[in-house]
Amino acid sequence: MTSAFAEQAEHAKAHAASILISVADAAKISEVPCETVQMIHDHPYEAIVATAKENGCDLIVMASHGGSGIAAVVLGSVTTNVLTHTSIPTLVI
């Protein structure tokens, strides 16, 4: 792994962790049960679907897309794949 790639991966991991902490804090304030999970997977939709099943989730919440350019295409395809590979209700925002 190149240094630049490793640095970018660590930055992304830290950014995701900060978002998950914010979500968990908001849920706690609202007295809504919330468990967050952060992982790296070659096929993110597979990890999302498997984790939701393993944890007995009754709802998956996702963004319809993210960012711009190639990020929007990739994130949009993750959402599409989750929608087509799970029977768990999925709320797309």
By CATH, the architecture of the largest domain is named 3-Layer(aba) Sandwich
Helical segment count: 3
Share of helix, binned:
55-70%
State mean pLDDT (0 to 100 scale): 87
Order of helices and strands: HHEHE
Radius of gyration: 14 Å
Query: What's the CATH topology name of the largest domain?
Result: Rossmann fold
Main beta sheet: 2 strands, parallel
Q: What distance separates the N and C termini?
A: 34 Å
Structural class: mainly alpha
Query: Main sheet: which strands, in order across?
Result: 1-2
Shape: globular
Q: In percent terms, what proportion of residues is strand?
A: 5-15%
List the helices and strands and how they pair.
Blueprint: H1 3-29, H2 44-54, E1 60-62, H3 70-85, E2 90-92
What does this structure look like?
Helix 2 packs parallel to helix 3. This protein has 2 domains: 38 residues, no CATH class; 55 residues, Rossmann fold (3-Layer(aba) Sandwich), CATH 3.40.50.620. The protein is mainly α. The chain contains 3 helices and 2 strands; from the N terminus they run H-H-E-H-E. The longest helix has 27 residues. Helix 3 links the parallel strand 1 and strand 2. The chain is globular and about 40 Å long. It has a two-stranded parallel sheet.
Identify the notable features of this structure and list them briefly.
single chain, 93 residues, mainly alpha, Rossmann fold, 2 domains, 3 helices, 6% strand, globular
Structure summarized in a few sentences:
With 93 residues, the protein is mainly alpha-helical. The protein has helices at 3-29, 44-54, 70-85, and strands at residues 60-62, 90-92.
